[in-house]
Amino acid sequence: MTSSPELAGRLGRPTPTPFGPLSRPPELASTIDTSGLVDADGGLVDRAIFTDHQIYQQELRRVFAPSWLFLAHTDQFRRPGDFFGTYMGEDPVIVTMDRNRKIRAYLNSCRHRGARVCRADAGTTRNFTCTYHGWSYGLDGGLVSVPNKAGYPDGFDTADWGLVEVPLIDSHRGLIFGTWNPQAPSLSEALGTMAWYMDAMLDHDGSGTEVVGGVHKWVLDGNWKLAAEQFATDWYHVNMSHASALMLLSPEGKGPRDEIVHRSGRQYADPNGHGAGFPVHPRNRFDAQPVHQWFDYDAARARLGDARVEGPLTNGHATVFPNFSYLPVNGSVRVWHPKGPDRMEVWAWTLVDRSMPDDVKEAQRLYNLRTFGPSGVFEQDDGENWSEVQAISRGFVTNSVPLNYQMGLGSEREDGRYPGLTSELYSDSAGRAFYRRWQRLMNTPAWYEGDV
Fold first, then answer.
1. Which residues of the chain have pLDDT under 50?
2. φ and ψ at 124, to 5 degrees?
3. Which secondary-structure segment (H or E) carries 278?
4. What's the pTM value of the predicted model, to 2 decimals?
5. Could you read off the pLDDT of 226-285 as tens digits, one per residue?
6. How many CA atoms lie within 13 A of 452 on its CB side?
7. Helix and strand totals (H; E) in the chain
8. Is 441 in a helix, a strand, or coil?
């Protein structure tokens, strides 16, 4: 493991910082060989990956720190000084627009004693000031004010003590991502073919998307991977887990028609761990009636093609590895923030097309809130499943029994209609790809580790 000064320098500080004799012993970052915990080819997963604390700490270092992580939507930043507080793994960050209208992100931790320099969730400011001792930072991350600066030694230079900056920020169709890895492949490379599926939700008519209704946040018991992999791969649970919700939303409470229950479709499995599943039907439509009536399906076909309109445009589910997921039918996008191996915090936005009339935007917002909001009829089912899985996984015998991800094993193929490798709708293909990518990162030294 490289020393602490080297690590710090590679994490994106604008200027070198004098660390003196500090050097972190490698024992503080010992690693576990996870190659025996995931058999992606055979479709088996060891439950220890959901419960072990050392594995979780390794995830923060090797999965979250090197990956492109969703931060915010461009619609949240309209003028210099607008900011939004979020997390990259468990690291708090501030995303802001600087005076040159550039989106930047900083570790939300004062360089003096480490307290947050911004405690508000969002807003507009001229600078970020720590409420502990008053160190203040500009929108460019530089240290601009130090109370009692005369008390520091002559070698103290404020230029050395700016906020730690996220070195790479980029966006795709309004979605802002960042990574701590200054050597990371571009966001475009990281998304790869997944962008084709994402654009079925994000690029309906060229007007772009915007956020309505703010950000909803809630805490669930369960490992973050349980949620991320479900949104990547699992249409299988819908008819069982959401039976009561489907009954509630069906005409006259008779339950959905047989052709709705027994859907056929495709599931996309990306080599970078992303995944998407969607029913395929010529008459796929948006569920909220005002959205359906307003939407121009013919124009969407001309722009996006028949394959996307009949597939991932509406019903479906998807995850961008590691922890960003979305549901096209109601415009729901969310992040599964890890909070230890046994807990996650869900942050969810509703996206709508900018071109939608206000009443249609409101209809989509309400439909999302009622279905996949914190108390939504579908969302509650999912949270209950994840907490149930987690609740018993710490038992010695239970934790020793592997989990089965074998549905659709060997069915992946290039079908000539949907890009990349796809499987049947009812499949674990994207789940296997998710854990294959997870295992590869867990066993690969991150950029800051050098030779280990």
1. 1-10, 12-16, 452
2. -135, 135
3. strand 275-279
4. 0.93
5. 999 999 999 888 877 777 777 777 766 565 556 555 679 999 999 999 999 999 999 999
6. 19
7. 16, 21
8. helix
Domain ranges for the chain: 69-170, 192-442
Instruction: Please state whether beta strands 403-404 and 44-45 pair in parallel, antiparallel, or not at all (unpaired).
Output: antiparallel
The Cα–Cα gap between 284 and 359 comes to: 22
CA 45-47-48 angle, to 5 degrees, is 115
Spatial strand order in the sheet of 332-338: 209-221, 343-353, 332-338, 324-327, 317-320, 275-279, 265-269, 422-424
pLDDT digits (tens, 9 = 90+) for 369-397: 999 999 888 888 888 888 999 999 999 99
The two tokens of residue 229 are: 């992999």
What's the CA gap between 331 and 212, in Å, rounded?
Answer: 10
Same fold, 69-170 and 192-442: no
Cα→Cα distances 239→89, 256, 257, 288, 322, Å:
32, 10, 12, 20, 26
* Topology of the domain covering 192-442: Naphthalene 1,2-dioxygenase Alpha Subunit; Chain A, domain 1 (3.90.380)
Q: Do 96 and 136 contact (CB within 8 A), yes or no?
A: no
Q: Helices 379-392 and 224-233 meet at what angle, rounded to 10?
A: 130
Nearest 5°: the CA angle 224, 229, 233 is 160
Query: What CATH code is assigned to 69-170?
Result: 2.102.10.10
CB count in 10 Å sphere of residue 118: 24
Q: What is the CA radius of gyration of the chain?
A: 23
Half-sphere exposure of 111 (CA within 13 A, CB side): 26
Q: Which long-range contacts (CB under 8 A, 24 or more apart) does 139-144 make?
A: 139/80, 139/81, 139/96, 139/97, 139/98, 139/99, 139/104, 140/98, 140/99, 140/104, 141/14, 141/104, 141/106, 141/165, 142/14, 143/111
pLDDT at 30: 85
Is the separation of the CB atoms in 199 and 173 below 8 Å? yes
| Residue carrying the six token digits 């549905």 | 407
CA atoms of 356 and 407, how far apart (whole Å): 39
3-state secondary structure of 222: coil
- What confidence score (pLDDT) does residue 16 get? 46
User: Over the chain, what is the mean pLDDT?
Assistant: 92
The pLDDT assigned to 11 comes to 52
